[in-house]
């Protein structure tokens, strides 16, 4: 019984087939598939699937599964969603799989502890928002929406035992996160072994030709190939996409690390966050998130290297991404708002806050206006020169603010229109 992590794929990607001998349609589809991807395995099998699809007119079945572990989708998720949309646009069937069953197990990928399982109520609530948000990237009229509880629930105890017999503990322990936890003496719950098996079984149930995922999902994706062969199906190919680095420039984008950009965030906030990434990280975002051609991106990069201000390129990226989720007009307004803030101006969308207790200490006022997490943080911001009232810098930590209406600013981006009684 072969291991997903040790499966042999034959010749390396570039040596499987000479692109020049392929039809124009297959070459174009292969170019779309390869763009920005980390691995396409095995590429020779994928070429043969594309050739068969072209010859028969039968679209290939391309699957992406997401567990609804949080209510919001962020730009990191859209890396694979964008690839899914590109393959959808060239005529293939896209299956957006919501892992409502596997969410109850919890994906152990990259974990050094057991992931706390979600309740059915949490899963249902999160799943309700997933497709609506994914439809901002995918064509909803051409997307097959499935839930893996459709086939996992009916499997039952007998079916689960039969599925578990298709793989060995020794092979499961070759997986890096299980291997590391075992040797570190960290507990591994038995139900965690079920996660890759159930994700692999999804590919059997859906008769998938290609499954997409982040690089951290490679073991799970290869499990799908293994189980399809076990059940007598033609094994799927797998396509892994790089993990999008978050706003901190270090860790992968994650809501738990608070380095993310949610696709449902307000346009002004999305635009400002995109402008905050480093000039170096910007090019990775272009490759993984932009719909510009690779030639356009290369041309833009050459201009920056020749002396053009990198902020110009970053603004183009921020406007493209913001317009995708909020429309062109909102992206234009977000740019104007950002420029206004950069000049020290007051943005249009300042939240109004009503407070009582005048005269009120500046630290308490900042906290009650939700501009800082605590009064002591507010006083530190005053000390650092980061607090303004109606544009004037506040330097007195002992200031008592009298009754009235005024705009309070903390840092470059936090504003509140305060009415103090």
TrEMBL record:
<dbReference type="GO" id="GO:0004831">
    <property type="term" value="F:tyrosine-tRNA ligase activity"/>
</dbReference>
<keyword id="KW-0648">Protein biosynthesis</keyword>
<dbReference type="GO" id="GO:0006437">
    <property type="term" value="P:tyrosyl-tRNA aminoacylation"/>
</dbReference>
<feature type="domain" description="RNA-binding S4">
    <location>
        <begin position="365"/>
        <end position="405"/>
    </location>
</feature>
<keyword id="KW-0963">Cytoplasm</keyword>
<comment type="similarity">
    <text>Belongs to the class-I aminoacyl-tRNA synthetase family. TyrS type 2 subfamily.</text>
</comment>
<dbReference type="InterPro" id="IPR002307">
    <property type="entry name" value="Tyr-tRNA-ligase"/>
</dbReference>
<feature type="binding site">
    <location>
        <position position="255"/>
    </location>
    <ligand>
        <name>ATP</name>
    </ligand>
</feature>
<dbReference type="InterPro" id="IPR002305">
    <property type="entry name" value="aa-tRNA-synth_Ic"/>
</dbReference>
<dbReference type="Pfam" id="PF01479">
    <property type="entry name" value="S4"/>
</dbReference>
<keyword id="KW-0547">Nucleotide-binding</keyword>
<protein>
    <recommendedName>
        <fullName>Tyrosine--tRNA ligase</fullName>
        <ecNumber>6.1.1.1</ecNumber>
    </recommendedName>
</protein>
<comment type="subunit">
    <text>Homodimer.</text>
</comment>
<dbReference type="InterPro" id="IPR002942">
    <property type="entry name" value="S4_RNA-bd"/>
</dbReference>
<comment type="function">
    <text>Catalyzes the attachment of tyrosine to tRNA(Tyr) in a two-step reaction: tyrosine is first activated by ATP to form Tyr-AMP and then transferred to the acceptor end of tRNA(Tyr).</text>
</comment>
<keyword id="KW-0694">RNA-binding</keyword>
<feature type="short sequence motif" description="'KMSKS' region">
    <location>
        <begin position="252"/>
        <end position="256"/>
    </location>
</feature>
<keyword id="KW-0030">Aminoacyl-tRNA synthetase</keyword>
<dbReference type="Pfam" id="PF00579">
    <property type="entry name" value="tRNA-synt_1b"/>
</dbReference>
<dbReference type="InterPro" id="IPR001412">
    <property type="entry name" value="aa-tRNA-synth_I_CS"/>
</dbReference>
<dbReference type="GO" id="GO:0005829">
    <property type="term" value="C:cytosol"/>
</dbReference>
<dbReference type="InterPro" id="IPR014729">
    <property type="entry name" value="Rossmann-like_a/b/a_fold"/>
</dbReference>
<dbReference type="InterPro" id="IPR024108">
    <property type="entry name" value="Tyr-tRNA-ligase_bac_2"/>
</dbReference>
<keyword id="KW-0436">Ligase</keyword>
<dbReference type="GO" id="GO:0005524">
    <property type="term" value="F:ATP binding"/>
</dbReference>
<feature type="short sequence motif" description="'HIGH' region">
    <location>
        <begin position="68"/>
        <end position="77"/>
    </location>
</feature>
<keyword id="KW-0067">ATP-binding</keyword>
<dbReference type="InterPro" id="IPR024088">
    <property type="entry name" value="Tyr-tRNA-ligase_bac-type"/>
</dbReference>
<dbReference type="InterPro" id="IPR036986">
    <property type="entry name" value="S4_RNA-bd_sf"/>
</dbReference>
<dbReference type="GO" id="GO:0003723">
    <property type="term" value="F:RNA binding"/>
</dbReference>
């Amino acid at each position: 019984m072969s291991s997903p992590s040790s499966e042999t794929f034959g010749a390396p990607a570039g040596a499987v087939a000479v692109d020049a001998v392929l039809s124009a349609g297959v070459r174009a589809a292969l170019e779309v598939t390869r763009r920005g991807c980390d691995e396409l395995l095995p590429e020779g099998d994928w070429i043969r699937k594309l050739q068969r699809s072209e010859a028969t007119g039968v679209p290939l079945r391309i699957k992406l599964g997401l567990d609804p572990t949080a209510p919001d989708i962020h730009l990191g998720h859209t890396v694979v969603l964008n690839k899914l949309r590109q393959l959808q646009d060239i005529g293939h069937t896209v299956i957006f799989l919501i892992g409502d069953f596997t969410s109850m197990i919890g994906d152990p990928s990259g974990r050094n502890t057991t992931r706390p399982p979600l309740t059915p109520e949490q899963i249902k609530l999160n799943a309700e928002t997933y497709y609506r948000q994914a439809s901002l990237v995918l064509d909803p009229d051409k997307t097959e929406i499935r839930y893996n509880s459709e086939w996992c629930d009916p499997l039952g105890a007998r079916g689960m035992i039969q599925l578990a017999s298709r793989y060995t503990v020794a092979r499961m322990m070759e997986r890096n996160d299980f291997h590391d936890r075992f040797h570190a003496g960290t507990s591994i719950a038995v139900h965690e072994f079920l996660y890759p098996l159930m994700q692999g079984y999804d590919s059997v149930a859906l008769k998938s030709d290609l499954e997409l995922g982040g690089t951290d999902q490679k073991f799970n994706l290869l499990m799908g190939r293994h189980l399809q062969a076990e059940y007598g199906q033609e094994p799927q190919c797998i396509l892994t996409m790089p993990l999008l680095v978050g706003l901190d420039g270090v860790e992968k984008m994650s809501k738990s690390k608070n380095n993310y950009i949610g696709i449902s965030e307000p346009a002004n906030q999305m635009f400002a966050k995109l402008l905050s990434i480093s000039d170096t990280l910007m090019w990775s975002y272009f490759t993984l998130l932009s719909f510009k051609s690779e030639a356009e991106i290369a041309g833009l990069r050459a201009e920056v290297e020749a002396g053009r201000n990198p902020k110009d390129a970053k603004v183009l990226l921020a406007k493209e991404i913001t317009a995708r989720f909020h429309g062109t007009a909102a992206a234009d307004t977000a740019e104007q708002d950002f420029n206004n803030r950069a000049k020290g101006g007051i943005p249009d969308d300042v939240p109004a806050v009503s407070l009582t207790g005048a005269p009120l200490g500046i630290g308490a006022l900042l906290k009650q206006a939700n501009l800082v997490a605590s009064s002591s943080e507010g006083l530190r911001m005053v000390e650092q020169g980061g607090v303004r009232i109606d544009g004037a810098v506040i330097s007195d930590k002992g200031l008592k603010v009298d009754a009235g209406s005024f705009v309070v600013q903390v840092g470059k981006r936090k504003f509140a229109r305060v009415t103090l009684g």
